[in-house]
Amino acid sequence: MTDNYDVIMVGAGHNGLVCATYLAKAGRKVLVLEAGDSPGGAAASREFAPGYSVSSCAQWLYQLHPRVSRDLKLEKHGLELAARDLASVLLDVDGQHLSVLGPLAEGGRLGGEDRDAYKLFHEKTLKYAKLISRLFESRPPGLVEANLADRFALVKLGVRLKLLGREDMSDLMRIVLSNMYDLMDEHFDSPQLKALLSVDSVLGSRMGPRTPNTVFGYLYRRVGEVFGYTGVAQVKGGMGALGEAMAASARARGVELRLGSRVRSIDMFNGQVTGVTLASGGQLRAPVVVSNADPVTTFEKLVGFRNMETGMARRVSQIRCDGGAAKLHLALDGLPRFNGLEDAQLAQRLVIAPDMNYIERAFNAVKYGEYSAAPVLDISIPTVSDPAGAPPGCHVLSAIVQFAPFEPAGGWEGASAAAGESHREHFTRLVLAKIAEYAPGIREQVVASELLTPADLERGHGMKGGHWHHGELSLDQVMMTRPFPGATQYASGLDGLYLCSAGAHPGGGVMGLAGKNAAREIIKRGAPV
Amino acid sequence: MTSKSDQTMMLRTPFHNRVAAACELNAWGTWKGYTTPTAYTDVELEYFAIRSTTGVFDLSPMNKYRITGPDAEACLNRMVTRDVSKIRVGRVGYTVWCNDAGQVMDDGTIFHLGENDYRICAFARAIDWLHWCALGFDVTIVDESDEVAALAVQGPTSCAVLLAMGLAGLEQLKPFGLTTFPFEGATLTVSRTGFTGDLGYELWIAPDRAEALWDRLFEAGKPHIIKPFGSDALDLARIEAGFLQAGVDFVPAESAVRNGRSRSPFELGLGWLVDMDKPVFNGRRALRREQAEGSRYRFAMLDVDGNKPAQHSFILKGANKVGTVTSAAWCPTAKSNVAFAQIEMPHGAVGDELVAEIYYQRELQWTRVLAPCKVIDAPVFNPPRRRAVPPGSF
Q1: CA distance B279 to chain A (A)
Q2: Cα B113 to Cα A172, A235, A273, A361, B67, distances in angstroms
Q3: Is there a single domain that holds both residue B73 and residue B168?
Q4: Looking at the 3D structure of chain B, how many domains does it have?
Q5: By CA distance, what is A494's nearest residue in B?
Q6: Contacts of B285 in chain A (CB under 8 A)
Q7: Which of A229, A273, A319, B374 has the fewest Cβ atoms within 10 Å of its own Cβ atom?
Q8: pLDDT 10s digits, A281-334
Q9: Which positions in chain B touch A495 (Cβ < 8 Å)?
Q10: DSSP A398
């Protein structure tokens, strides 16, 4: 097979498509190879039961960078929001639900003091999120071999920190490494408010509110607000429609996209990337290969530890990327009824996590390779705003479920403690029972259900460990140490191989910045000699 | 039985009872947690046993690792700078290995014991590094440091001694060759290797046969004037032969704390051990960059005027300090005053004339000598008997 691509992109995840489009815009001839049969990666939709389709991985849009959206002309290519500015509602068994949108917290058992305290907290943390977002919009500075540009980036960071003012700067330094539990106790009285904000700090990660780094996790999520999202938004047609829009944009720029083309290996010779070998056996050559796969998959599986030096293999082997989040999809024959919620409110983001200790206990299980008996849930009923996802009158419920191990002992199909049930069935029943505490009739409405465990997410989306972010977002694995020292700034430490996935700076979430920054770096470095 | 008061924290090698009996000076040093003699009787006499008859050195504390499995060769080949595929079964290869930054972690020898079966002898503990190196390879790694006792038998009559001990046919063993003999129900492995630059062998045996081996060896060696030697005599011999000592002539890269204190193979004069034709090995990227951009330092062997060893000396070019000495000795057989130095580039090329700033003390009086010295291109001691097959009986 002869070919003359400038760049081969491994994987058509959202960051891969963003990166490919920017590269094509800069005149590079780009081929994108995707193992699956649809583009978008974690921005995917799937029919999980006849007539019922759902965002099969990410379910809310809240961080997509506006510049990416504009540059890729995503609206022109079909991106449409079914709903936006959706509040987060912390469900209460007695119907005393707490609702938070932007700086406003209301309902629940919230006192006036907490409401005011939240406003101030929101304002202050938004300042921090702004500072962090600036770091996200460019490559991270180098860790050791800082050149002038990198030093300037660090100086800018220092100046921005200073500009926060003395009090806020020292407060940020104080809290950024700390845990959400203590921070919440410091600011609020309401168990509901503390719990709702804590959920944001641990979503998609393998941390409980008492885990250090969770404040960073919270600020990370808040970056979405800097990018123009108040609350969460829902993509019409599910997140897969975003993937399709990105693919259309890439194609319009001349990117060649091949679906169903699994890359078996990234090929090297004398430390220089030469191209890729397909699972079907064919070889494709290009001087630059960009991996949209997570770093562990990229280095361990596609390049192979044998083809790199030991120090690099060691660092890759130590990346923490065990996921802790599962997804439950329910096909319902009608609109579920939640105690004390109006039908219109069902379009919003519904959260089950009564208090911080509840979250921490749910997290405890996963530390021991078990799933939570009483899990934390982030629920979306997309068919309220976008009825096309289910047959007329029917609905889909999609929930992020935390916490679940990659696999419990004996595997998900292995026998659970409950008689006659596999772990998968048992966990599904536990989650359903938890939802039924708030929506008593829901069990009778279920037509079909699907539980996607971290192991399923790894299989379905190629994400090692099933981790949404392609590696834990903790301070030892962000910025110049993401994915690991020696492979920052989107270069991999192997000539000609670049990284553009969530495993690279700034990380996961459907944001598009890893792809955008990677493209800029690749363009800046020019064609390899 | 030793009483409690005789016990120390130090480990004892399988030869300890024999070594202790022979160690008249009771001069003990430490080596990887083992107590080992720095000298037995007299350093000069021990040195001359190595050069004139036969000297015996207990090297049991040496770190020994066994690497087996279908990927053993591939794994080692990725780890070390040399092409391991060229070390055939029954051969030993000297090599260095680097970290990803191309800095030397250690030097050592690779014994190709059999198909998919290697032993690597290392100065530094390496079990953790070996396990990291094994990621992605189908290999088994065993630390057999305590399971193999070893003696170095070095000197012109060493072959004769071993033949007299009954190791028939040993004279046919080539340098860096490896062979085995039955020994009292166990297997005695013999390699024609050593750290003295002389004719010599190293004997590898199970610890429970160690004392028997020592006894048979010294019995057979009596007519050939066999003598045990300590680490001081070894140091003298290895400097004369031009051998670097890890931890002395370079800081093992992964234990260097300060930035810039480690060295690449090129900077240690060991570029000949680096096979850049191998597509992947630890340090390759960095070494390729170093080849393109130039090294920071050069290893220089210096012939120093006078007879004062240039230990710890600064090396000057004109009035400027351009290097430091890592090892130095007056070498009795070669009758030359040798120093190993790390010289800043571009100085230190062969023939370069430099000055060693030597400080020495006689009866509490310190004296400073500015000794002219010259960079030489080869070790001062390299006798034909080291390579001869058969080596001849002396």
Answers
A1: 4
A2: 60, 64, 35, 55, 10
A3: no
A4: 3
A5: B285
A6: 271, 309, 493, 495
A7: B374
A8: 999 999 999 999 999 999 999 999 999 999 999 999 999 999 999 999 999 999
A9: 285
A10: E
